[in-house]
Amino acid sequence: MCGGVTLGKGKSGMKEEKLKELLKNMSLKDKAGQLVQLTGNCFTTADAETGPAADLGIPQDMVYRTGSILNVVGADKLKEVQDQYLEKNPPKIPMLFMADVINGFRTIMPIPLGQGCSFDPELVQEAAQVAAKEASSAGVQVTFSPMVDLVRDARWGRVMESTGEDPCLNSAMGLAMVRGYQGEGLDQPGTVASCVKHFAVYGAPEAGRDYNLVDMSEKRLREEYLPAYETAIKEGGAAMVMTSFNSLNGIPATGNSWLMQDLLRKEWGFEGTLITDYAAIFELLNHGVVKDKREASAMAMKCGVDIDMVTDCYANELEKLVQDGVISREALDEAVYRVLKLKNDLGLFENPIRYADKQLEEKLCCCEEHRTVSRKLAQESCVLLKNKGILPLKKAGQKVALMGALADSQEICGAWSLFYKPEEVVTLKQGMEAKAPLCSTSWGCDMLDAWPKWISFANTEFCGREDQSDSIQEAVQKAKEADVVVMTLGELAQQTGEGTSRGNLELADCQKQLFDAVYQVNPHIVVVLFTGRPLDIRYIDGRAEAILVAWQPGTEGGNAIADLLYGDAEPSGKLSMSFPYCTGQEPVYYAHYRTGRPATRGVKQRFCSSYQDIPNEPLYPFGYGLGYTTFEISVPEVDKAEFAAGDSLQVNATVKNTGDRAGCEVVQLYVKDCVSSTERPVKELKGFERVELKPGESRKVSFTLSEKDFAFFRVDGTWGMEAGEFELYVGSDSDTENKIQVCCRN
Ligand code: BGC
Q1: Angle (CA) 107 113 116, round 5°
Q2: Which ranges of 226-367 would DSSP assign to H, the alpha helix?
Q3: How many Cβ atoms sit within 10 Å of the Cβ of residue 94?
Q4: How far are the Cα atoms of 119, 377, 401, 684 from residue 688, in angstroms, in the given order?
Q5: Which residues of 630-640 are buried (b: 16+ CB within 10 A; e: fewer)?
Q6: Closest Cα to atom 11, ligand 1: which residue?
């Protein structure tokens, strides 16, 4: 049951032999078509001589052989497009409908970076399940999610799409999302196939500049960047994988046979469908590794790339490549079979529109049950960075002025929310007013004036207003009349996501001006930071009395933030990505390497690995976040001080709520390998648990470590653990020094 609706029974696909029979009877052109993906507008104007497909150079006879379609949603629309298509498609094979359902479909969840801060994979799985139910009722069959790219450089605009800087957290969250989308199997109702992206290491572009190269040792790849993809694919059983735009060690991912063949297919045994990122086959030309589209298509096909997203490469080149013997018929058949198999697994041959159903869509989308999940996840995603006792706010006897450009905005759903309705979003003003009256709401200033004017975005008025002094003055007047100011700062959704790398992570000048002007008349400022990435917040950090990072919190954002501000919910989020001291520190992450000249915190010393002008430590580290109560975590204990490789090791600690409010602590376990054959990070997260406790209550938390938690890429290129000393830390953030030493004997 969901939203009061029973979703009905699953479908079972046709037998393998029948599928192979179908493949055998397809023409070469039919087969090539299955490997092409086009956007929806190619179908709505399909009969025209001109139009998007023609612009792409794709002939009409190929349009109606196209195997899949991008970002067309809505049960009725989908049915219409599929019906029309099937009338004209010679082998009568239904088209696959894929879409970017990233943090929710109609009910929008917090952006993935925020979801990471919940440290709550169960809830993240539920949120993905909600998205799958809504999306599948609107016809979506495959979602391009999760993005499990590990991210450590906040200059990159797409950090918002990842669950953060840590391999263990990222793997847990990616797995949760795949399980949420795919449920008990793709033959079950309310599911969508999950596409893990962007394979691989798109999250580490040099200098944080989108689409830039990645140059990385195999050691770092395997220890830090690959685990989340591997987990989502092998443990989660994700049906699809998407190649990435970047090159890796000089070879573009989409033409990288080590990545796609040796690692993905052979080593990991991935048998699902592999799709390119948008136009990535064509971009092989821009990378300069092929001279034309024919070579680009051949290169991608040889890597086992099945679907070409929105270019004319496969559409126009594949048949000839096969006829000329450059690509074998077997290779083509294998790729087509993988696409057909996915269609079959989804039950499309029995029902080409699957669970698309207008009535179901209307009932499910943004229903109360789904909004409740969104509200809970938004509460858990927000991170309280500081609080000098000003929070929680009082519902009576306190005059609260709310201000800033996002105070009453519905644009708080993140850059990838393509299918939501803004009118369904609860603004912060609405959320706060549902708790207690506000004494005023003012605009303050827009958020864009530091935004480079030379970037123009289609359909977006993107330049900040030149002179904001009147609106700032108005905010100052309102602040004078209030006891407390709640000020929204940060960045807009459009300033985050693809193509939005930044060279400066500071707040826009107009936001600084607003803060300064208001601070002079009323220093009791609570900052609510809406953002898609960690920012340099030094400007306000020393002066704001509280800072709550709300990310882009989604449909129930206003309610969730108000719940936290007024203490109807306890802040429990922990940073999934470190907040830098300043931009020049990026990339900054807790699991850094030791170096031969490690710096000592707080000690200024030349000739060690440090900066002259800034600290090494981020302003707020990974795993950090406050609540309204306090916790104490005991020194960890182990069930055996010595263990052998192959043994499991239990680590226990007691966490106690030492404050006078109920609350939730995320207890985190980190491991340090003291001496190893290659250099290792100072510590690495290996487990975490959310623990809810009443005032005065304590609970024992236990983690079980096994050989895989100590394994790494050894100096001889093998994967495994080495005997020796380890330090095990249990604490409330990555800075913890609360530890015990254990020894692994040979
Ligand atoms: C993005 C992908 C996305 C695809 C389809 C690309 O530009 O990099 O993440 O899934 O477009 O919309």
Answers
A1: 90
A2: 227-230, 257, 283-287, 293-302, 313-323, 329-345, 358-364
A3: 22
A4: 7, 17, 38, 12
A5: ebebeebbbee
A6: 278
Q: Where are the alpha helices (DSSP H) in 452-529?
A: 469-480, 509-521
Q: What is the mean pLDDT of residues 640-646?
A: 91
Whether residue 211 contacts residue 279, with contact meaning beta carbons closer than 8 Å, is answered with: no
pLDDT surpassing 90 at residue 6: no
Give the CA distances from residue 141 to residues 180, 181, 235, 311, 352, in Å, rounded to whole numbers and listed in that order: 14, 10, 21, 21, 10
Q: What is the mean pLDDT of residues 43-69?
A: 84
Residue nearest to atom 5 of ligand 1 (CA): 278
Which residue's CA is the closest to the ligand 1 atom numbered 2? 277
Question: Is the confidence at residue 530, as pLDDT, over 50?
Answer: yes
Q: Out of 100, 277, 308, 312, pick the active-site residue.
A: 277
Question: What distance in Å separates the CA atoms of residue 396 and residue 375, rounded to the nearest whole number?
Answer: 24
Query: Any alpha helices (H) in 89-155, and if so which ranges?
Result: 112-117, 121-137
Query: Is-contact 439 481, C-beta < 8 A?
Result: yes
144 lines ligand 1 (CB under 6 A): yes
| Residues paired with residue 743 on neighbouring β-strands, in sequence order | 642, 725
What is the CB-side half-sphere exposure of residue 71 using CA atoms within 13 A?
Answer: 13
Backbone φ and ψ of 469, nearest 5°: -65, -35
Cα-to-centroid distance, 309 and ligand 1 (Å): 9
What pLDDT was estimated at residue 462? 46
Say if CB 113 and CB 161 are below 8 A apart.
yes
**Is residue 651 classed exposed, middle or buried when 0-12, 13-18 and 19+ CB atoms within 10 A define those classes?**
buried
| 144 CA: nearest ligand 1 atom | 10
Question: 388 to each of 446, 547, 608, how far by Cα in Å?
Answer: 27, 10, 35
Q: What is the DSSP string of 34-101?
A: HTEEEETHHHHTTTSSSSHHHHHT--HHHHTT--EEES---HHHHHHHHHHHHHH-TT-PPPEEEE--
Q: Which atom of ligand 1 is nearest to the CA of 195?
A: 10
Instruction: Look up 277 and say whether it is catalytic.
Output: yes
CA angle 61, 62, 65 (to 5 degrees): 100
Of all residues in the chain, the percent with pLDDT exceeding 70 is 95
The total of other beta-carbon atoms located within 10 Å of residue 18's CB is: 12
283 lines ligand 1 (CB under 6 A): no
- Residue 277, ligand 1, Cβ within 6 A: yes
pTM for the whole structure: 0.97
The alpha carbon of 278 and the centre of ligand 1 are apart by a number of angstroms equal to: 6
How far is ligand 1, taken at its centre, from the CA of residue 458, in Å?
17
Q: Please give the single-letter amino acid code of residue 207.
A: A
* Residue-averaged pLDDT of the chain: 94
- The mean per-residue pLDDT over the stretch 366-387 comes to 98
Residue 268, Cβ density class (10 Å: 0-12 exposed, 13-18 middle, ≥19 buried): middle
Measured between alpha carbons, how far is 46 from 616 in angstroms, rounded to an integer? Answer: 57
**Residue closest by Cα to atom 10 of ligand 1:** 144
210 CB near ligand 1 (under 6 Å): no
Residues 548 and 385 sit within 8 Å (Cβ to Cβ): yes
CB atoms within 10 A of CB 302: 17
Helix pair 293-302, 313-323: axis angle to 10 deg: 80
The secondary structure of 386-453, three-state, reads EECCCCCCCCCCCCEEEECCCCCCCCCCCCCCCCCCHHHCCCHHHHHHCCCCCCEEECCCCCCCCCCC
If you average pLDDT over residues 419-447, what whole number do you get?
Answer: 95
Would the CB of 433 count as within 6 Å of ligand 1?
no
Using the predicted structure, report yes or no on whether residue 8 has a pLDDT greater than 80.
no
Q: Which of 100, 102, 140 has most ligand 1 atoms within 8 Å of CB, for mutation?
A: 100
Ligand 1 centroid to 147 CA: how many Å? Answer: 10
Cα–Cα distance measured from residue 268 to residue 708, given in angstroms and rounded to the nearest whole number: 17
Is residue 325 scored above 70 in pLDDT? yes
Q: How far is the CA of 139 from the centre of ligand 1 (A)?
A: 19
* 498 pocket-lining for ligand 1 (C-beta < 6 Å): yes
